[in-house]
Design goal:
Elements (H helix, E strand, L loop, with lengths): L2 H6 L11 H19 L1 H21 L11 H11 L7 H17 L3 H6 L4 H25 L6
Amino acid sequence: MTLARFIAAGFGTGNAPLAAGTVASAAAVITGAAFLSISPWLLALAAAAATIGGTLAIRKAAIEGDPGWVVIDEFAGQWITVLALARPTLPGLLAAFVLFRLFDITKLGPIGWADRRHGAFAIMADDVIAGLIAAIPLITVRLLRPEWLM
């Protein structure tokens, strides 16, 4: 396996025999929680690196379509969602996971539009958009009912 394919496969999580996207999202929540506990800037840097590095890795590996084993996009989107939390708590992380997976799977609105595009950028874009949209309810709850995320 080349480095580009390893990155595209979400550091190997894309090789899960079932539900590779969900496995990658779960791994991203755990690592995202660790990054956030160190610094939100570290998590933001990781999300940016996954987005840019994932796009470059997908291009370098000449991946066609959006195969199920390509899950670096889940890391980028899930990390963006986790960024909406003030700090990593179990309720907050569970909410971030569920919201991201909900938007990623249903492909509503601009997420579906991005999913219908082609190429490396499109593979990444739908999950990045899903991460941004999933962050909105978390930010809203964080502002109006922060105790729900404690």
